[in-house]
Amino acid sequence: MADATLVLQDVTKSFGAVAALRSGSLTVRPGSIHALVGENGAGKSTLVKIVSGVHRRDGGRFAFQGRDADFSSTAESKAAGIAVIYQEPTLFPDLSVTENIFMGRQPLGRGRRIDRARMHSEATALFDRLGVALDPRRPARGLSIADQQIIEIAKAISLDAALLVMDEPTAALSGVEVERLFAVARSLRDEGRALVFISHRFDEVFDLCDTVTVMRDGEYVSTHAIAETDVESIVGEMVGREVGELFPKTPAPLGDVVLDVEGLSSAGVFRDVSFQVRAGEIVGLAGLVGAGRSEIARAVFGVDGYDSGAVRLGGTPVARSNPRAAIRAGMAFVPEDRRKQGLVTEGSVARNVAGVIRRGLTRAGLLTSAAENRAAAPWAARLQVKTSALDMDATTMSGGNQQKVVIAKWLATQPRLLIIDEPTRGIDVGTKAEVHRLLSDLAGQGMAIVMISSELPEVLGMADRVLVVCEGRITAELDRAEATPEKVMHAATRTGPTPGSTPTATEEVPV
Amino acid sequence: MSTALVNDPATPTRGARGTQLLGALLRSRELAVLVVLLLIVLGTTLKSNGFLFSSDGFRNLLVTPSLLLLLAVGQTLVIVTRNVDLSVGSVLGLTAYLTGRLFADNPGIPVIAVFAAGLAMGALLGLVNGVLVAFGRVPALVITLGTLYIYRGIFLTWAGSDRINASDMDPGFLALGTRSILGIPVLTLIALGVLAAVGYYLHTARGGRELYAIGSDPDAATLYGLRVTRRVLVAFVLSGALAGLAGVVYAARYGTVSSGAGSGIELQAVGAAVIGGVAIFGGSGTVWGAAIGAFLLVTINRALPIVGISDFWQRAVVGALILAAIVLDRVLANRQERRLREQQGSSAAEAAPPGPDGPPVPAGPTDPTTHHDEEARA
Amino acid sequence: MSAPTLSDAPTSREPRSERTYPAYSRPLWRRALLTREFAVVALLGVVYLYSFNEVPAFDGPLTLYYLFLDIAPILLIAMPMTMVIITGEIDLSVASVVGLSSVLTGVLHQDAGLSIPVAALVAVLVGGLCGAFNGFLVAYVGLPSLAVTIGTLALYRGIAVGLLGTTAVTGFPDRWTDLAKQRIVEGSSWPMILVPFLLLLLFTTWLLHFSTFGRGVYEIGLNDEAAHFTGVNVELTKFWLFVFAGAVAGFAGVYYTLRYGSARGDNATGLELQVIAAVLLGGVSIFGGRGALHGVVAGAVLIGVISSAMRLENQTVNLINIVIGVLLVLSVTSTSFLAWASGLAAGRRRARSTDRSRTSSG
Amino acid sequence: GDGDAAPGSDGGDGDVTVTMLPKNLGNPYFDTSTSGAEKAGDELGVTVEEVGPDAASPEAQVPFINTAAQQGVEALVVSANDPTAICDALDEARSAGTSVVTFDSDTDPECRDIYVNQADAGGIAQVQVDLIAEQIGDKGEVAVLSAAANATNQNAWIELMEAEIEENHPDIELVDVVYGDDDDQKSFDQTAALLQQYPDLAGIISPTTVGISAAARYLSTSNAKGRVSLTGLGTPNQMREYVEDGTVEAFALWNPADLGYLATFTAAALANGDIEGEEGDTFEAGRLGEYTVGADGVVLLGDPFVFDGENIGDFDF
Ligand SMILES: Nc1ncnc2c1ncn2[C@@H]1O[C@H](COP(=O)(O)OP(=O)(O)OP(=O)(O)O)[C@@H](O)[C@H]1O
Ligand SMILES: Nc1ncnc2c1ncn2[C@@H]1O[C@H](COP(=O)(O)OP(=O)(O)OP(=O)(O)O)[C@@H](O)[C@H]1O
Ligand SMILES: [Mg+2]
Ligand SMILES: [Mg+2]
Question: Which residues form the ABC transporter domain (chain A) (predicted)?
Fold first, then answer.
């Protein structure tokens, strides 16, 4: 076997009081795709950032291509031949797609001028290889998360690096795009490069990778050849405890209609959306990434406006474009991007959890921190938020923990309707099961729930009823019993007539 | 605000007609200001044709804005990186005084050496700003507000009540303030030369593009591996150096340097850049725009009394102009966003046509069935 | 209604050990003393004591009286400015509003014959209107406040100067000019202007630190999108803060006019920089989301004490400006310097305790 | 910390301190007047301290007046940026026992003890109108480039000049008064604007030292040189070059050093109780001889002096 491209041995890293890595180890060989798995906060991203020079390790061994390495900036790691796709997109919104890919190493023409024509044609070639049609001249601003991720991927493979690290590159991609990415990854592997692939989706791990390393609580647990292991044992190692059933959906008696959305339209985003949700019911919104599910949810909750239609909660109309009215009416909304929309990450746990209910905490005109702490503590406890004190900033927490804070914040309002967008995006299996159990419990207690998810098994496993959204319209409504992956897929892509789709909608599809 | 397309007007290819159109529209951001400028010149000339057609009028039209132009170009470099340099007025005062002192204390000193000294002094003061901003991790607004006080204090303490008079300075140097080559004043030529060099650098050099990247998203720039600290330092050094050059130009043009030299001009420099379409939060805008903005500001100031508006109202007009410029920017940006959304809609349709052999599947598992089974087992 | 009972606990189906959380990760004295605000207060104490003992005539009865008269406009405007900056915005136009309000007070009194209270009221209202214009452009049109208020800085000043040229309105009734300089108790060092200031301070403290509105202000500064998602009306909050800043600046303009007995278009030129210096010196983050009022008050008074002491030492304004500038730069860079130093210290401590933590965590 | 010997705090053991407060620092005119004051201080054995703001505005002067009151200095010599705005501050200083002398630019008479007038307004207006009339052949368009629009002295002179022109020079038309705010750059640009706006302009009067030198500098390089005459009030050092190159024929001024010298003697006389500031009081002012306090507490320095190519070489200030 060839010498390892990357060797990490007992690497440690702490941020203040948080020990992100206690002993991280990882050995990646050329010509191999190496999966790195672990729960949220296991330290995967931190390990990656040490390899790429974003962070410097506190201790341990780090060798790249047989030589000891200690990068103090990403520029150094890049120069050494390491390409990284970070978990969070790192684009320059004002610059063109092409410039984003080639920034800092643009092809130069005469007199060290940037050769723009060559740069654009190289970008086009890259997109061809990835099988996507993106205008290389458009600015990156306004691209969907999926397109942003594709640019990150194009950026990384254009680097021609010996080691390519991908930190959850598929979290926002659709099936086709994932397949194309995998094809590229395989061809890079066949060229003899080393790849590291981080994902919470086991099917992808088993589909693509040849080796897997498991991490838990900042420590190395094990490394296996993929062929010699299975999902169950890996999950066991990741969690270090028994995971309950992943989709513990129990049927609950349905009550009255809680949410009634009627003919909601917003120009260019969605059209004529109508549906109802009953107490005790979980309604899943399925569809391709970019179908407009989040936009519908945002309009219903009032963070965005809509052009026509009506939203009623328990029979009473809810004012449009007014989140506070929605909250007062009894709605709660867990948005898809927790760092940007769900949380004030630099705010304390207590302020975040008490963020929506603080109006009720005012006594004699005064709102005190003590009151907020008192109100927040039980909800944090209920969701088992891992934090040392209520005044810790949410920045110091892993994704799963942050999601718990967001959910705690909304449950604290004791809503009648919970809209939850991508409840488990980027969350590890252990926490995932917890969240699912929670949703099932809440429905059992009579809460109406709208769940948006891009993971089909999650929708099928949790929803009482599935609404399929395609290009801003609801193209199918399927009961739990009749919802099969095929039917949902058809409605989501409109490859054929599906039950529940309106005939006019099909005619107008510009396919 | 104006976008990458302005900065990146590459040769069109087929299929990019929408972009082309959009590009033309956006390039009009600079064009719009230019048109306003020309209208003002035209209108004022109709009122009093000496404004343009007397030799003094023509010279003043060109030479008066050159000072602000230098500052606006430097300011653009800094603003593009999502910073701002409020200390330029004080740097200008300090170097203008330095210029005078050099001539007064070293009669016969070569003019070129004085220019070099001014540039070096400005660069040094800019370096101090840059170091504090880049290493102190403090917003430039605060740092340069502090150095605005400090540099001016140093200037006034150094100068005391000492004033530099025209007679202290080299006549050859002062002649620069009035001499013309081919009908274009030398000072204007200096400013235009700087403009061309900086504009070329920002458009075609890797370093220049990196300044835009840094301003567009500083965190991403760090993650990406750009040398953010160094680039920001360079931007501040250049801004300082250009303010220093402006100080020398000030001495040449006005012939006297007193305690008020350059005070308050920093906001005009920022204003010129903003009017010219440089986004205050970095990442976009061009020095050409900033230069036109500088011309516009100065020319309006000179035109108002001629068209019969008391010069007391000048500042109000300048303020209204800045506001109009940023509102216009917003309108254009909104229009652009709409276009991009349309464009994205069409390209998405192109990108994922349901092929016969590989129908797209919903996001997530490539094979939902097996996945489901695996998860269920877990 | 807020504290849930155990029975409606979301995960009650599977009873677990309820976690309890300490409210704070650090003891009270560390939370109170290891802050930027406290550092400014301490510095103020040191500078004051030094001046009191070492600077000739600083211990005289007039010192504090003049000091507060001088910094009153800064103190007043710093209150709303603190909130504006905490939302991540900035208002550079306040000094121009002071100028405009001053001119209006003069013009309305002299030319329109209005009595001083009426003229003052109109001036304050116009100040609020100026703020509303800023607020509208920033909050509802969504323009960057730095650019907007650089524009209105020129616009409002331009209107002020345009209305009055560079002439001045003087000759206000003694009753009113004396009021601006009167002491709360005859013979004390506390000028009357402190009364409205203290009321404003009380109001602002409540608004920023003890009301839901204030929580929203901080959230907007830290993450305005998340604030919007939790029902904070981001636009309206910003709008009102700019109105607040404009109205207070308008009031400061009236005070300015009466204190100096002259209404001029160029009154208070450059005051915005002093206000912002005081606010930032007081520990408010220019990025928004952080800061507290006691630091700001200390920052403003510190600037006043330093200026007063240095003037008594017959230092030139230039030197005073240098000191204030250096202080501003030091105070803002100190944060990152301290973070860097404490990072170093923590690193060393960690290195020593790695083994211990490893065994305890296992 | 080492200012323990400063006056006021340690009482009056015969140590007299005079604080000079010009309109602003960094102004060579006041630099010269302060040097005269210091000379007087040396002769009298009193301490002269110069303080002042960096911009010429009344509200910037007030803190310095307050400081003088706090220090309890014996006398304050001030050139007012506004006739009334600084009155209250001066009153407080006077009630703290400080004698107040204004020079160069006066306040309302009731706010100070004595005003040392550089030349009476009529004389100053007269000399400037005479100079410009002579230079432009007593006919044509004339403009005034002043300092700030509410500078007391400037406005008084301009008013008198207007009256004088109307009365005795029917062919001269005063077309505009513009303000350079005693700022080089602004005055320079204002000159340019004047020439553009009035193509037939024959002469400019600038009764301020900053203005006249900025205007001269602009004229000397423009093609209006020789066509447009310039006169006003300036200092010989600033104007020497332009007199020698022919841009300016002649201009006027008093000697600011003498003004500061006289103001200091006046202040010392008041502080020592030699005079009360009443009309008719007389006192000795060193080499300048004896002066008498006139109506309204005004002491007049003398007639302005005309500088031209013949005599400018004899002066250095
Ligand atoms: N910059 C930081 N400051 C403080 N703590 C941090 C920082 N970055 C990471 N951490 C902490 O380090 C731990 C490991 O985080 P890391 O991002 O490496 O986890 P991960 O395995 O990538 O999780 P996920 O699957 O959610 O991406 C977490 O507890 C996190 O809160
Ligand atoms: N920032 C943006 N600027 C312009 N258009 C956008 C932006 N974000 C999304 N869109 C467009 O809005 C539509 C819906 O996007 P979005 O990704 O939110 O849908 P979704 O169904 O919620 O998908 P998911 O939540 O799975 O990512 C798409 O046409 C997308 O291209
Ligand atoms: Mg991660
Ligand atoms: Mg979504």
Answer: 6-242, 252-496
Instruction: Work out the minimum CA distance from D12 to partner chain C, whole angstroms.
Output: 14
On whether any CB of chain D is under 8 Å from the CB of B171, the answer is no
| Structural domain boundaries enclosing B172 | 46-338
Q: How far is the CA of A15 from the centre of ligand 1 (A)?
A: 9
Is the alpha carbon torsion for D232, D235, D236, D239 positive or negative? negative
As a whole number of angstroms, the distance between CA D79 and CA D106 comes to 7
Give percent helix, percent strand, percent coil of chain C, each to the nearest 5: 70, 0, 25
Q: Which domains does chain A have, with CATH numbers?
A: 6-91+143-239 (3.40.50.300), 244-330+415-511 (3.40.50.300), 340-413 (no CATH)
Which residues in chain B have their CB less than 8 angstroms from residue C142's CB? 330
For residue C224, which of C292, C283, C139 has the smallest C-alpha distance?
C139
pLDDT digits (tens), chain A, 511 positions: 457 889 999 999 987 667 888 888 999 999 999 999 987 778 898 999 999 988 889 989 999 998 898 888 888 888 898 999 887 778 888 888 999 998 888 888 887 888 888 889 999 998 888 878 888 888 888 777 778 888 888 888 888 889 999 988 887 777 777 888 888 889 889 988 899 999 888 888 999 999 999 998 888 999 999 999 988 888 888 877 665 567 777 888 888 999 999 999 998 889 999 999 999 999 999 987 778 899 999 999 999 999 999 999 999 999 999 999 999 999 999 998 888 888 988 888 999 999 899 888 988 889 998 999 999 999 888 888 888 788 888 877 777 888 889 999 999 999 999 999 988 877 777 788 888 999 999 999 999 999 998 888 888 889 999 999 988 899 999 998 888 888 888 888 775 443 443 333 333 323 2
Distance, in Å, from the CA atom of A98 to the CA atom of A124, rounded to the nearest integer, reads 9
| Domains of chain C, each with CATH number or no CATH | 35-333 (1.10.3470)
- Residue D284: pLDDT band with limits 50, 70, 90: confident
Specify if B15 maps to a domain.
no
Helix (H) / strand (E) containing C216: helix C212-222
Alpha-carbon dihedral angle through residues A134, A136, A140, A146, given to the nearest 10 degrees? 30
* B8/A137 touch (CB, cutoff 8 Å), yes or no: yes
Total structural domains in chain B? 1
DSSP B183-217: TEEHHHHHHHHHHHHHHHHHHHSHHHHHHHHHHH-
* Ligand 1, atom 13, residue with closest C-alpha: A20
Protein residues whose CB sits closer than 6 Å to any atom of ligand 1 = A 15, 18, 20, 38, 40-46, 87, 396-399, 426
Amino acid at site B227: R
**Inside any domain, residue B363:** no
- Nearest-CA residue of chain B relative to A230? B374
Nearest Cα residue to atom 5 of ligand 1:
A396
pTM: 0.81
| Closest listed ligand to the CA of A199 | 1
Residue D196: list chain B partners with CB under 8 A.
48, 50-51, 54, 56-57, 60, 302, 306
DSSP for D225-290 reads BTTBEEEEB--HHHHHHHHHTTS--EEEE--HHHHHHHHHHHHHHHHTTS--S-TT-EEE-GGG-E
> A10 is written with which tokens?
């007992």
CATH of the domain at B99: 1.10.3470
**Whether C19 and A384 lie within 8 Å, measured CB to CB:** yes
Q: What is the ipTM of this complex?
A: 0.79
Nearest CA to A261 out of A253, A273, A250 is that of A273
Question: Which among C50, C168, C181 has CB closest to D150?
Answer: C168
Chain C partners within 8 Å of A362 (Cβ): 211-212
B265, part of any domain: yes
Instruction: Report the share of chain A in percent with pLDDT over 70.
Output: 95
